[in-house]
Write a structure and sequence with these properties.
single chain, about 120 residues, mainly beta, four-stranded antiparallel sheet, 8 strands, globular
């Protein structure tokens, strides 16, 4: 039986040829981490807290920016949706913004290469 949530364990090649692994789950304690190849460097790119899990991850190949949507019941009570923008080149969070679901595009569909 497969889990009923998304997982990411996806290698990405940046414009300069650097390799990054994007890893995370849409589950309790879920967050998105990036690991840089040829080093032990791991960075948390998106962590919205308890009960608010990553549900969509997109990467701009032109700018090496990663965008993460996280959605769920904050503290198990109020629905929240957060957007994160992470700079893969400079290994830093650029933006974390609370948003309304109705202003966002549809989530990326699941496919065989990204669970």
């Amino acid at each position: 039986m497969s889990p009923n949530y998304r997982e990411w364990d996806t290698p990405i090649t940046l414009k300069d040829g650097a390799k990054v692994i994007v890893k995370g789950t849409q589950s309790p304690g879920g967050r998105i981490e990036v690991r840089y190849a040829n080093s032990d460097v791991r960075k948390v790119a998106a962590d919205a807290g308890d009960y608010v899990y990553p549900s969509d991850v997109r990467v701009s190949s032109q700018s090496n920016l990663m965008y993460v949507k996280a959605s769920g019941l904050a503290a198990g009570i109020n629905h929240e949706t957060w957007l994160f923008k992470y700079d893969l080149n400079n290994q830093r969070l650029v933006m974390k913004q609370l948003v309304s679901d109705d202003v966002l595009p549809v989530e990326c569909p699941e496919n065989p290469t990204v669970k």
